[in-house]
Amino acid sequence: MVSRIAAAIKELASPASRRFAAQAPTPKDDAAAASFAALTHKLDYLDTADIKRVREAYRFADEAHLGQFRASGEPYITHPIAVAGLCADWKLDAQAIMAALMHDAMEDCGVTKAELIERFGAPTADLVDGLTKLDKLQFSTREESQAESFRKMLLAMARDVRVILVKLADRLHNMRTMEAMAPAKRTRIARETLDIYAPIAHRLGLNQTYRELQELSFQHLRPWRHAALSKAVQKARGYRRDIVDRIQREVEKAFAQPKLQSQVFGREKTLFSIYRKMREKHLTFAQVNDIFGFRIVVHTLPECYLALGVLHQLYKPVPGRFKDYIAIPKANGYQSLHTTLVSPLGTAVEFQIRTEQMHAVAEKGIAAHWLYKTKGGGPAHVQEAQRLGAMWLQSLIDIQDETRDASEFLEHVKIDLFPDAVYVFTPKSKILALPRGATPVDFAYAIHSDVGDHCVAAKVNGEPVALRTELRSGDVIEIVSAPGAKPNPAWLNFVRTGRARSKIRHYLKTMEQEESQELGSKMLSQALRAEGLSMPGDDTPESAVWQQLTRWSGNRSREELLIDIGLGRKIATIVAKRLARLLAEHGTKPDAVMLSMGRYSRGDGEHVQDMVQIDGAEGASVQMAPCCRPIPGDAIVGYLGRGEGLVVHTAECGVGKRLYERDSERWMNVEWAEQPTRPFETGVMVLLKNGKGVLAEVAAAVSASEADITHIDMGDEPPALAAELRLLLSVRDRLHLADVMRTLKRSGRVLRVARVKP
Known about the structure:
Blueprint: H1 2-10, H2 15-22, H3 27-42, H4 48-64, H5 78-89, H6 94-101, H7 105-109, H8 113-120, H9 122-130, H10 142-159, H11 162-176, H12 183-203, H13 207-221, H14 223-256, E1 263-268, H15 271-281, E2 292-298, H16 301-314, E3 323-324, E4 337-342, E5 348-355, H17 356-364, H18 368-373, H19 380-402, H20 406-416, E6 421-425, E7 431-435, H21 440-447, H22 449-453, E8 455-460, E9 463-465, E10 477-481, H23 498-530, H24 544-553, H25 558-566, H26 572-585, H27 592-602, E11 612-614, E12 622-624, E13 636-641, E14 645-650, H28 654-662, E15 667-668, E16 670-672, E17 680-689, H29 694-704, E18 708-713, E19 722-731, H30 734-745, E20 750-755
Parallel strand pairs: 2-5, 11-16, 12-14
Antiparallel strand pairs: 1-2, 3-4, 4-5, 6-7, 8-9, 8-10, 13-14, 13-15, 17-19, 17-20, 18-19
Helix pairs in contact: 3-5, 4-6, 5-6, 5-11, 6-9, 6-11, 8-9, 10-19, 10-20, 11-12, 11-13, 12-13, 13-14, 14-15, 14-16, 19-23, 20-23, 21-23, 23-25, 23-26, 23-27, 24-26, 29-30
C-alpha cells in the first residue's frame, strides 16, 4: 500500500504542477502541492486503479481552475483538495472523491456535464451536477434562485447521499476559511449554514460536522458573544480542571475493579450549545452546570449496561435524567446511554456510554456506512443508521412529488430538519420517531398517505383523543379511518411534519383542480349552447381547435383552461365566443334549435339544460355565500369570483345585487338539484326569555326537528330579561327550516324566531 501511495505521489507531475514550478512558486503554491500529497496519504483504503482515477480528476480540476484564486489569495485548487480530504476522512469511494475535486468545475469553469461523462463516467458527472447551483437560470428574486438550487441539491441527494456528504464537506471548509469575505456575505452564508446545512448534518447523524458547522456559524453571526463566552469557558476550565481530573480518576478506578475495559474521555459543551441553553432557559453563564461531561466507550453492548451500573454505584443519579437511546435509537440512528450524576461537588455531570461502533455512527452518521464498507460490511446499528437516513431521503422525493413550488418544498424540508423527536408506538409495537408537537394526523401520514387521507379519529393509549392532540414519547397510537373521509384544510394549522403538510396540500390542490375542471366544463358547455354549439371532444375533427384555443388563452392544456374557467380566472362567455369563431373557421355551423334554446335561456324564461345544478357535492369549487347562506328551495344565482370558483347567493341578497351591478358578466344561471347530497347551513335569530336551562331547551327543540346546531353566538351583551341567540343550523331545505322554526316557536320561552338575512 505504501509503495502504491509513493507511486501515486511520484506521478503527480501534472501539467498544472509543472506550471506552478515555472511561475516561481510561492509558499501558497507549495501548500497546495503539500495538501494534495496529504490527500493521497488519506486514500490508502482505495486500490491502485481508484487512486489513478482520483489523480486524473485532480489534474482536470487543476487545469480547469487555472488562474483562479480564493478571496484569501490562495490558488483556488486548494479548496477542492481540502474538500476531498474531508471526504477521504469519511472513507468515501473514489467517485465521491473525484466529485469533491471537481465540484466547482461546472459552475465556475464552464465545464459541461457531457465532458465529465466522457472523461469520468456518468455516476461521477451526476454527483458534480447535483452539487452545481442554478445560477445560470433567470429568477425573479435571490430567494427564489436559492430555493430552487436547494431543491436541486436535495433531490440529487435523495437519489445519491454522496451528493450531500460532498456538499457538507464543501460548506465546512468554506466556513473554516471565511475571514477574507465581506461581512455581509459572511453573515448570509453563516445564517444559511445554521438554518439548512447544520440541521441536514444532524439529520444524517454527522454530529461532529453538525457541531463544528453550528460553532463556526455562531462565531460569524455573533462574534462578540462568541468571544465573551469563549473567555468565560476558558476561565471556567481553569477553575474546574481539578474536579474534572478527579472525576476521571475515580471513574477509571471504578471500572478497573470489575476489569471492564473502557476509554473515558472528558468532553466540553460547544459555545453555541451553551449560548442556546442560556437563551432558551434564560440562564446566566454561571447557572449552566453541564459545561463539562464524560463519554465512556466500551467494547460490547452488554458492557454498556454494566458500565451504567458501575457509574450509578459510584455517584448518585439525578432522577428523570436517564435516557436509553440504545433500545430506542434517535431518528438519525444515534445510540448511547445518557445518565446525569451528582458529582462530589454537588454539580450535575452528564455521562454518555456507547460501544466503539456506536461512537463511529454517532460522529459520522450515515457516512459510517462507507467506513465499515471498507472493512467488509458494517454492524447492525450502522445498517440501521443507513436505513433511517434512507427513509428521510425517500420522504424528500415524496414531498417533491406533491410540491412544485421550490420555496414551499424548502419550507417542508426545514420542518423536517428540526425533529427534536418523540418516540411513539403503533398498536403492533413498531417504533416511530416524530418531531416534538406532532399529532395523530402526523402519525397517520407517517404510516401511509392513504391512512392520513382517510383518517377520521384517533386513540392514544386506548382513549379517544382530538386529532390536534400533541403526542408524547411512549404513547401507543391507533388511527380510525373511513373510506369516504378526506383531508380537512384545518389540519394544516396543527400538523408538524413536512410529509403530512405536503400530502394534505397536494390532496386539497388536486381535489380543487378536479372540481374546478368539472365546473369549468359545465360553464363552457352552457355558454356554447347560447352560441348554438356543443362542446367539441378530443376525438372529433374539431379537436384541433383546442390547441388554437389554449394558445389564444395562454394555457398549456385544455384541462388547465377549464380549471381557469371554473375558478373564475377566465369568463366562460368570452372563451365560448372565441371557440365558436374557431369552430366556424373549421366549418362547424351553429345548430338552429340549440341556438333558439340558448337565446330563450338568456331571456326571461329558463331552460333546464342551460343551468349549472347545485347538489352539495361540488366541493371547494362551489361555495355558499356567507352573507345570505342559501339552502335548497331558495331562488339562487351564481357569481363567478376571481380565483375562488362559483359563489352561490340567494336571488334577493343585497350583497349579490351590488356585485351584479358592478360586474354583471360574471353572473350565471344556477339551480338546485332534485336530490341534494348533503344538508346546508343557514342563520336563524332566536329572541327568548332569559333563564336557567334556556339553552338546553332550544337545543332540544332543534334536535327534535332532526336538525343540527353548528354554531351559537350569544353576543357580548350582559345577561338581561331577554336574550338574542344567533344559531347556525344545518338543514335539508326550506321546508325543513320552516319545521325547525315552528318547533322553536312552540317553546314558552321563545319570543320570536326569524331567518337571518343580509
